[in-house]
Amino acid sequence: MSSNIIDPVLAAAKQRAREDYLPYAGALTPVEAYTLLQHDTKVLLVDVRTRAECDWIGRAILPEAQHAAIEWTQYPGGARNPNFLAQLAMLATTQRTLLFLCRSGVRSRFAATLAAANGYQHCMDILEGFEGDKDGAGHRKTVNGWCVAGLPWVGA
Asked: Which class is domain 3-154?
């Protein structure tokens, strides 16, 4: 772990949390999240998109030990996953740094909020999500997000 690299990233994430009164530890840009993942092998990215989204759209390329998928909502139907916390508990202790990722940064905020409320002390939301915000034509992957940042990912 290289503290001279990750300390400023964590400080920025925590500052955003304080400024925005977030109920979890921090909020990271995709580039900041990837920096943490590269420099601290104990950090876990939790992709909360549906399996269908991951299969059809793509996913981040990370070492298996640093990447997990737990649906926030289930496909089809969109019902909230009632086993989310139990599935999270099988993957991580409450002390592990968890970075939550979804399509555009909404479900990941919900996941980080729930995890933090249940004792996970180092929960962070990845701002902008995997695909980012919609552009003027209603398309994603053109404005911001993990993909637009040029971070490693594989498409369907």
From this structure: alpha beta
Helices 107-117 and 84-91: crossing angle in degrees, nearest 10, is 70
Predicted structure pTM score? 0.96
User: By C-alpha distance, which of 61, 66, 121 is closest to 91?
Assistant: 66
User: Buried b vs exposed e over 7-44: b needs ≥16 C-beta within 10 Å?
Assistant: eebbeebeebbeeeebebbbbbbbebbbbbbeebeebb
The 3-state secondary structure of 86-98, one letter per residue: HHHHHHCCCCCEE
Domain boundaries along the sequence of the chain? 3-154
Q: What letter represents residue 30's amino acid?
A: P
Q: Where are the alpha helices (DSSP H) in the chain?
A: 3-19, 30-39, 51-56, 84-91, 107-117
d(CA 46, CA 99): 6
For the stretch 131-139, contacts whose Cβ atoms lie closer than 8 Å and that sit 24 or more positions apart, written own/partner, are: 131/57, 131/103, 131/104, 132/104, 133/104
Q: What is the pLDDT of residues 108-139, one digit of tens each?
A: 999 999 999 999 999 999 999 999 999 999 99
